[in-house]
Amino acid sequence: MASMVPIQRKIIHIDMDAFYASVEQRDFPELRGKPLVVGGSPEGRGGVVATASYEARKFGIHSAMPSKTALKLCPDVIFVYPRFDVYKAVSRKLHEIFHRYTDIIEPLSLDEAYLDVTKDKRGIGFAIDIAREIKKAVREELQLTASAGVSISKFVAKIASDLEKPDGLTFIGPSRIEAFMEGLKVEKFYGVGKVTAAKMKSMGIFTGADLKKYEEAELVRLFGKVGRFYYHIVRGIDNRPVQPYRETKSISVEDTYQQDLTTKEAMLEELMILAARLISRLENHGLKGRTLTLKFKFHDFTLITRSRSVAGLIENEQALIQLARQILDNTELTDKKVRLLGIGVSNFNVPQSPEDGPGENTGPRQLRLF
């Protein structure tokens, strides 16, 4: 009896180009061609960059950068306040385009999603042709551009979408995957942050080819459980399915620091930067929560978390920072060197869709992102 050969999946990763900034430049012609930052503060007094236009990126400005740094890099940069209602409306139209081809869609944010087009609704067959049609519809119907990566796995498709930005289209077929992964710099691998990349480079691991020399057990010993992922992914093995429906229980952001944080003042400053990123993600998903959690990892790799809940909802960045300050003030950190800080919100109100009817729904329900 012949063995069953698994169907090879066709995955597209779509990532809009400088989404918030591009929407602003589309809607306000006077902003086109100029260095533009969505978020932050024109006086550089606080906040961080949510998105930078490509004109601003030429100066080294990037998302999550403090606005005061952006202002130093480009004194003529234009700051605009985010219009999340507009971005969400554009995102809904974007997903209407996606649904013409497949209903197996995994949204990562307002402007980014995986699509499984193994069986596409229109019977086109070739994933690269579907990606080309989606990009054309985005350009004609939304007056925006998107970059697409096409492959047989989520990991490779996501990396591919970033290779030719903006307005890129990159296909990496099965026969090219292993060679592609071998040539990939380690900092491009999922789960490899600055600290891990530095550790790898100190060991002489600069590319996927270098990483591939290590056995699975050795990678697990060196990097923990994620070492198993590194072992498989460098060989092009990624069987994660595109997941159309996921219940979000918490949203968080974190950062690892090259130099340990030793004072609460320094920690608070970093928490303010993280808070702005967290609020942006919460707004992207249309969520507000009641519980805030801070995560501290120390130089000896011990880890603690501290949480506090409120009766109502954490409504905005100011309220979030105020609560984070309270948690920080009540956490014993004397003589502690903090290597990683994280901040997250949970215990959500679940937003209703129009067909749910009036009244707040606080019970468990499948999250609808769009």
TrEMBL record:
Active site, per annotation = E112
Cofactor needs: Mg(2+)
Q: Where is this site: Substrate discrimination?
A: Y20
Q: Which domain of life is it from?
A: Bacteria
Q: Which UniProt keywords apply?
A: Cytoplasm, DNA damage, DNA repair, DNA replication, DNA-binding, DNA-directed DNA polymerase, Magnesium, Metal-binding, Mutator protein, Nucleotidyltransferase, Transferase
Which Pfam family would be a valid example here?
Answer: IMS_C
Where is the segment annotated Disordered?
349-370
Q: SUPFAM superfamilies this protein is in?
A: DNA/RNA polymerases, Lesion bypass DNA polymerase (Y-family), little finger domain
Q: What is its EC number?
A: 2.7.7.7
> Which positions bind Mg(2+)?
D15, D111
Q: Which reaction does it catalyse?
A: DNA(n) + a 2'-deoxyribonucleoside 5'-triphosphate = DNA(n+1) + diphosphate
Q: What class of enzyme is it?
A: transferase
Q: Which NCBIfam families match?
A: PRK02406.1 (NF002677)
Tell me the function of this protein.
Poorly processive, error-prone DNA polymerase involved in untargeted mutagenesis. Copies undamaged DNA at stalled replication forks, which arise in vivo from mismatched or misaligned primer ends. These misaligned primers can be extended by PolIV. Exhibits no 3'-5' exonuclease (proofreading) activity. May be involved in translesional synthesis, in conjunction with the beta clamp from PolIII.
In which family does this protein belong, per the annotation?
A: Belongs to the DNA polymerase type-Y family.
This protein's name: DNA polymerase IV
Q: Which organism is it from?
A: Arachidicoccus ginsenosidivorans
